[in-house]
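Batch manifest, entry 17 of 40.
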Amino acid sequence: MMRISMVGPGADEELRSFRSWLLETPEIRQHAKVSWEIAEPSSGEMGAGALDTLQLITDNFWQVATFSLSYIAWKNTRKRSPRVTIEHNGKTVTLEGGDSATVEGITRALTEE
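Output type: structure tokens
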């Protein structure tokens, strides 16, 4: 399972945009389950919590590579640059850019043994 979160100006909107992008990517849609992780409200807060983490459930290396390529394609359409944190198999990667080196970095970091 991958967990994706974003921090910075417009992060909520950007995370929703990225979710839509993933759901429109046939390879992701066919081989992974994309869902929200709802944060519990803090003590004293009302409401059901915020949508702050996107979950992508996948089970193989190919999907990590496909995810990386989808991330870069989406990132190239955006003007904003929230910081993105991706967690997978106990590993965490934080991104602030989006180029071919980023794809290699995501794939390498999330698949190293």
